[in-house]
């Protein structure tokens, strides 16, 4: 029977890769059926297929792929389902499958070995943390001593994947030592087989995370570093690349252990950058970029006022390497490719070198300037475009990092040259980079925050604008950079008010941006997006004087949006483009709404358009069918806040899309934004939101109980409970029996969560904040109502939660502020009824005192308020 | 060619397992997308508005120190603020001062602001429970004004509603820089502008970021001033977007120590008397007995009114308003008449109802009856120009009279405080028993 079945399986697996759609579909159906009817049999026959050297390579590969997909999935929820399903399988079946997989590692067919090693790693990823399959690593290591290089290669590959799948804590140090020994020996120059050496080098890359202990031991670390450095000199380009990849990984994982090797590493990387294949040279540059990343982080922590210290000291490797490193990077800038600016995916030596130079400038600041400026001055006027472009790029790269004092004199000299180059240079690359450099000048050396004398003055601003508006008519990639430069120019004037030198040209600027967005080639080089984003920034920096011009922009943008809705039947591709354009237009309207809705002088005139705008937003939603448009949702939130309670008239039509947004688990950003908009609506409509609350609350409660929804949406949903309660007051009564238990269990979980890492702690605090905001809103919502009695049964638990938070000692300031506020709310709403409870609570007094003496003014404010409320409740 | 990631690409695997690409650092692109900015700013605004709504819920309504209906112990609490404005017929239950003010323009707005100011009565007798129920502070010498920040500008108005300064400040929405929340949301502060150091000294807060503190007790308003001001950088020295420094006047409990600190403690400003605030009083426009001003020669250069030459006249002067029926009245509400002019004299002297007139008062013509002053004879000393908008209040006339004859001295205040503290102690004893 099994033989028959596997015969069938081969045929089905081959059919599933057939060029004929109907055959393929039929085969896929059969596989699905098989899997559903008999999972153990299905997995077993796939492993037999993979292990059987008689079978065709194609059916074996697909068998392996299906096996792998039966063990792992991207989506977290699905992934844990598959894990549980595997663990629940009959152990005899699992043992058979594992034996077949291990056996496949000796197959003469390379693709079967490789597929099998990935499946083994997946199973290891499930079982090793459960302390199952303890013999796996031992049996793999025994393979290493086999003679056949193909078995050795497959085994090293498996060890590499295994290190990727399993977390270091799940493996004993003893086994780690053995794995590392095997891997590093495989990398050694004495290993004659280059396939084996390559597999070993790639395995080390994944195994580095396991080597914490070994890297702390001088002898072992020296050995590993020597072998890695030697591998960078291998005659095989793939081995050299893999070895540099290891060096890059080491630079970020073991930065603090590198000091003694830096001189050698510099020599190795310099040689690779100057002479090796591009794929190797790129990794060599990446090593230095990665060191920059580390030092920027460390120096950031040094200067941060909170810690003023870092776990890892800075070794100033970049500062020490500077005199040799900068010339090496400058050389790479001259190796541009033709048309690299037109290719979105381009990544080459010049780009990597320039990016690294920018990081170096951020790491060392002023010290980079004298090393780069001679190169700039020498090359910027050369007849060869590569030299002019490289000089401009070098200049642009060092504008972030060094002080304004150091840069301003240089920029003052360069500005006119750049403006003229942007219009007159015959080469598009040079113009592209020039416009980008101008944008960097405006980004870093312009704006009210700057202490030095301004580089951009009312006098040269007009000339700059003329050049940029002209340049927006250039080829798309240049025009896009010109828009970007204008974006930063405008940003620098956000605070300038009516004195903004842009004011006289406001109309021209908007006109030019609209014209640019209409260009037929605006789809290239992201030009249309850049034009609208710049328009947004210009709107953001409009003033009372220029607001009327922004007001005139509304019908223009609305007309564009209207046109996108009139298009007939569209292909999938066209639909996607239309949706992108609608996003840009809704984004622009959102910015306009925020700006004009906040200005008293324009608010009335602007609200005249509210009906039309709302109508368009609803139509945008309607043409997406299944999902709502994130940008339109954001725009509606802004409109609701500006319109206030008048927004109620749109609710009947808008409600269905609100619900749709709340149901969007897949695009969790959309869901999160919709939850935020519910908050906007609560504050705008207040009790007029009541008729929609049943639906909204139902959906929010469903969201919270779902495993599929991204966890980041949960804290805002809790906060949203508070928004709703504050808006509808005692009418929240009927939701208490649903919302309170959920808040309680989330509170219990989050109070006792032991955060493994920074990210988890951050999330836990967000969750706590959301829960506390919910309590706050509910308590305040019931204030003054006789129904506040209904909250009494929940008060002890809320106080226990606050006690637990206080005892846990890992709150951040914002949680502390909200938490002490909740204590005040409890006293404020429940009054004398809360007094005895608060007196009994173990730590509320201590917690209050702690908050009262907090350095954070917001915490202190909340605490001062809570103190008054509590004093009354306790003394009353 | 295949795009390589700038961040380390993991070793390439078979086609089955596409390596996870970390996002490449943007090349020649701004690192933050405008869309992400829009998203972030929406989230930030939402959370700021949630905080505002929360704060409004906490600060508004009857929450603080008004007796709770369910509380049987309410009677033991300090007396709730007497609702003086109800008696007087004002009704600023305007929940949202900001929105009311926002609708006004020009002279209307000027008049509106003129009506918003809370005016202290002059202290001629120490009130009971001075130590328990009152705050005290050293009043800075200078121009009393209402400071309003909104829409990116800050405007200060004198008591008569005219503008003193129009300037950028670090108050909320007080300059084009750092507008947050609806730009139109008002903050309104009661200040004294002190010329020598060009500083606005805050004596009270009426509205903050669009929510009204009208219904809050003085105690709450003072804590709010202190905590809110530290949220902004309005206390910083002047800069481009912050023309004048703001500073909070230290407020003390009216105990012996507090009184001494206010009376003799050093201040960065020139003192002009002491201000007393009843802790439980809500903010109230117009003259109120729940705020009191007191002076002597030690803590004020301006104890006794001077004439236009800056000389202390030999006789006390009072400023009164002429009414339709010829009566000469104070600025109190309701007004108190000190005398009248006959029609013939009014016409002959070319006077009109509403004119403010200065009179000198002979000491011997003054009588005090049940704490009220009666003046037998008023001697017209001149007509006032239009810049002055208000007549004297009864308490001011009385205080000036007292200052010339039997002033209320600091020793009297100390005695009042001490008798008060004994009262408190005796209450304590009772409670412990």
UniProtKB/TrEMBL annotation, chain A:
GO biological process, one term: protein import into nucleus
Main location, first listed in the record: cytoplasm
Localization terms from the record: Cytoplasm
Molecular function terms from GO: small GTPase binding
SUPFAM superfamilies in alphabetical order: ARM repeat
Keywords: Cytoplasm, Protein transport, Repeat, Transport
Pfam families, sorted: HEAT_EZ, IBN_N, TPR_IMB1
One term under GO cellular component: cytoplasm
PROSITE patterns, A to Z: IMPORTIN_B_NT
Signal peptide: none
Domain Importin N-terminal: 27-107
Transmembrane segments: none
Similarity comment text for this entry: Belongs to the importin beta family. Importin beta-1 subfamily.
The protein's name in its UniProt record: Importin N-terminal domain-containing protein
Organism from which the protein derives: Aegilops tauschii subsp. strangulata (Goatgrass)
UniProtKB/TrEMBL annotation, chain B:
Keywords on record: Cytoplasm, Nucleus, RNA-binding, Transport
Basic and acidic residues composition-biased segments: 84-93
Region (Disordered): 1-93
Primary subcellular site in the record, as a coarse category: cytoplasm
Domain called Snurportin-1 m3G cap-binding: residue spans: 116-291
Cellular compartment(s): Cytoplasm; Nucleus
GO CC annotations on file: cytoplasm; nucleus
Pfam families assigned to the protein according to its UniProt record, in alphabetical order: SPN1_m3Gcap_bd (PF21974)
One example GO MF annotation: RNA binding
Gene Ontology annotations of biological process type: snRNA import into nucleus
Family from the record: Belongs to the snurportin family.
Protein name: Snurportin-1
């Amino acid at each position: 029977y099994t033989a028959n079945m596997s015969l069938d399986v081969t045929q089905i697996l081959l059919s599933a890769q057939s060029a004929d759609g109907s055959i393929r579909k039929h085969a896929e159906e059969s596989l699905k059926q098989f899997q559903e009817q008999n999972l153990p049999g299905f997995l077993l026959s796939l492993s037999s297929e993979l292990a059987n050297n008689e079978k065709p390579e194609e059916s074996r590969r697909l068998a392996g792929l299906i096996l792998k997909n039966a063990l792992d999935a991207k989506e977290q929820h699905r992934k844990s389902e598959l894990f549980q399903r595997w663990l629940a399988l009959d152990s005899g079946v699992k043992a058979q499958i594992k034996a077949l997989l291990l056996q496949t590692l000796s197959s003469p067919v390379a693709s079967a070995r490789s597929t099998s090693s990935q499946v083994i790693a997946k199973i290891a990823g499930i079982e090793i943390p459960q302390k199952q399959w303890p013999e796996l690593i031992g049996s793999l290591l025994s393979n290493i001593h086999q003679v056949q290089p193909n078995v050795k290669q497959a085994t090293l590959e498996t060890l590499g994947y295994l290190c990727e799948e399993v977390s270091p804590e799940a493996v004993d140090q003893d086994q780690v030592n053995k794995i590392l020994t095997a891997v590093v020996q495989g990398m050694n120059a004495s290993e004659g087989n280059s396939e084996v050496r390559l597999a070993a080098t790639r395995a080390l890359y994944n195994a580095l995370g396991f080597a914490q202990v070994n890297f702390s031991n001088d002898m072992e670390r020296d050995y590993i570093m020597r072998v890695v450095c030697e591998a960078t000199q291998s005659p095989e380009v793939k081995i050299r690349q893999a070895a540099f990849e290891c060096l890059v990984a080491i630079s970020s994982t073991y930065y603090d252990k590198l000091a003694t090797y830096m001189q050698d590493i510099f020599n190795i990387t310099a040689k690779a950058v100057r002479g090796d294949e591009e794929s190797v040279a790129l990794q060599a540059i990446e090593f230095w970029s990665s060191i920059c990343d580390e030092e920027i982080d460390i120096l950031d922590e040094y200067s941060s006022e909170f810690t003023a210290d870092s776990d890892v000291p800075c070794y100033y490797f970049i500062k020490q390497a500077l005199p040799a490193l900068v010339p090496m990077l400058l050389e790479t800038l001259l190796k541009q490719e033709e048309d690299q600016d037109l290719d979105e995916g381009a990544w080459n030596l010049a780009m990597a070198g320039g990016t690294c130079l920018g990081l170096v400038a951020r790491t060392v600041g002023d010290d980079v300037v004298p090393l780069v400026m001679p190169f700039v001055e020498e090359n910027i006027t050369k007849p060869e475009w590569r030299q002019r472009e490289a000089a401009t790029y070098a200049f642009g790269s060092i504008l972030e990092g060094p002080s304004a004092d150091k840069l301003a004199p240089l920029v003052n000299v360069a500005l006119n040259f750049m403006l003229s180059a942007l219009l007159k240079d015959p080469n598009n690359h040079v113009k592209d980079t020039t416009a980008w450099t101008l944008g960097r000048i405006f980004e870093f050396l312009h704006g009210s925050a700057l202490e030095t004398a301004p580089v951009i003055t009312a006098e040269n601003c007009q000339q700059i604008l003329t050049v940029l508006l002209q340049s927006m008519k250039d080829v798309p990639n240049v025009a896009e950079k010109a828009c970007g430069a204008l974006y930063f120019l405008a940003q620098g004037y956000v605070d300038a008010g009516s004195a903004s030198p842009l004011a006289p040209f406001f109309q021209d600027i908007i006109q030019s941006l609209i014209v640019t967005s209409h260009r037929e080639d605006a789809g290239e080089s992201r030009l249309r997006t850049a034009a609208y984003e710049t328009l947004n920034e210009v709107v953001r920096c409009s003033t009372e004087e220029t607001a009327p011009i922004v007001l005139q922009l509304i019908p223009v943008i609305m007309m564009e949006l209207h046109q996108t809705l009139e298009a007939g039947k569209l292909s999938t591709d066209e639909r996607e483009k239309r949706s992108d354009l609608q996003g840009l237009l809704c984004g622009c309207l959102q910015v306009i709404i925020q700006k004009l809705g906040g200005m008293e002088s324009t608010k009335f005139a602007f609200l005249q358009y509210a009906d039309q705008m709302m109508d368009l937003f609803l139509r945008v939603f309607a043409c997406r069918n299944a999902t709502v448009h994130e940008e339109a949702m954001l725009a509606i939130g802004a409109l609701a806040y500006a319109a206030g309670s008048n927004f109620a008239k749109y609710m009947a039509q808008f409600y269905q899309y609100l619900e749709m947004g709340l149901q969007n688990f897949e695009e969790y950003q959309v869901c999160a934004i919709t939850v935020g908009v519910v908050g906007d609506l609560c504050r705008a409509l207040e009790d007029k939101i009541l008729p929609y609350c049943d639906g909204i609350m139902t959906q929010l409660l469903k969201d919270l109980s779902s495993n599929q929804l991204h966890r980041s949406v949960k804290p805002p949903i809790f906060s949203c409970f508070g928004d709703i309660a504050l808006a509808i007051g005692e009418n929240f009564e009927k939701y208490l029996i649903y919302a309170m238990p959920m808040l309680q269990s989330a509170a219990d979980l989050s109070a006792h969560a032991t955060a493994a890492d920074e990210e988890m702690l951050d999330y836990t605090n967000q969750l706590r904040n959301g829960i506390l905001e919910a309590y706050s809103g509910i308590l305040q919502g019931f204030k003054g109502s006789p129904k506040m009695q209904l909250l009494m049964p929940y008060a002890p638990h809320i106080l226990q939660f606050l006690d637990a938070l206080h005892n846990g000692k890992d709150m951040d300031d914002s949680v502390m502020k909200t938490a002490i506020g909740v204590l005040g709310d409890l006293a404020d709403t429940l009054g004398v009824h809360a007094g005895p409870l608060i007196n009994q609570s173990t730590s509320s007094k201590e917690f209050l005192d702690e908050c009262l003496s907090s350095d954070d003014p917001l915490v202190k404010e909340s605490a001062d308020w809570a103190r008054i409320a509590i004093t009354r409740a306790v003394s009353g | 060619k295949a795009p390589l990631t700038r961040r380390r690409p993991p070793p390439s695997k078979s086609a089955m397992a596409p390596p996870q690409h970390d996002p490449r650092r943007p090349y020649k692109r701004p690192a933050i997308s405008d869309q992400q900015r829009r998203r972030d700013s929406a989230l930030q605004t939402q959370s700021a508005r949630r905080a505002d709504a929360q704060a409004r819920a906490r600060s508004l309504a009857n929450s603080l120190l008004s007796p709770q209906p369910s509380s049987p112990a309410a009677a033991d609490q300090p007396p709730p603020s007497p609702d003086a404005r109800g008696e007087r017929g004002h009704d600023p239950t305007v929940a949202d001062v900001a929105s009311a003010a926002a609708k006004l323009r020009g002279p209307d707005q000027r008049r509106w602001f003129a009506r918003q100011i809370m005016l202290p009565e002059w202290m001629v007798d120490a009130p009971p429970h001075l130590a328990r129920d009152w705050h005290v502070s050293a009043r800075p010498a200078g121009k009393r004004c209402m400071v309003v920040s909104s829409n990116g500008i800050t405007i200060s108005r004198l008591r008569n509603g005219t503008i003193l300064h129009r300037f950028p400040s670090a108050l909320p929405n007080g300059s084009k820089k750092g507008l947050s929340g609806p730009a139109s949301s008002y903050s309104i502060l009661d200040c004294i502008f002190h010329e020598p150091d060009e500083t606005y000294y805050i004596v009270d807060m009426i509205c903050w970021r669009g929510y009204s503190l009208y219904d809050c007790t003085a105690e709450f308003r003072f804590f709010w001033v202190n905590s809110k001001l530290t949220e902004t950088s309005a206390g910083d020295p002047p800069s481009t977007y912050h023309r004048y420094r703001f500073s909070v006047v230290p407020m003390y409990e009216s105990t012996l120590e507090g009184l001494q600190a206010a009376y003799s403690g050093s201040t960065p400003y020139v003192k002009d008397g002491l201000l007393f605030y009843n802790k439980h009083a809500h903010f109230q426009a117009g003259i109120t007995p729940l705020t009191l001003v007191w002076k002597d020669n030690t803590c004020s250069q301006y104890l006794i009114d001077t004439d236009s030459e800056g000389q202390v006249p030999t006789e006390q002067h009072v400023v009164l308003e002429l009414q339709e029926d010829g009566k000469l009245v104070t600025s109190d509400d309701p007004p108190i008449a000190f005398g009248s002019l006959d029609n013939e004299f009014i016409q002959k002297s070319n006077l009109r109802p509403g004119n403010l007139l200065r009179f000198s008062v002979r000491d011997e013509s003054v009588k005090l009856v049940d704490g009220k002053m009666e003046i037998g004879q008023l001697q017209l000393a001149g007509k006032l120009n239009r810049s002055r908008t208000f007549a004297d209040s009864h308490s001011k006339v009385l205080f000036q009279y007292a200052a010339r004859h039997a002033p209320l001295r600091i020793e009297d205040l100390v005695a009042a405080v001490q008798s008060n503290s004994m009262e408190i102690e005796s209450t304590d004893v009772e409670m412990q028993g």
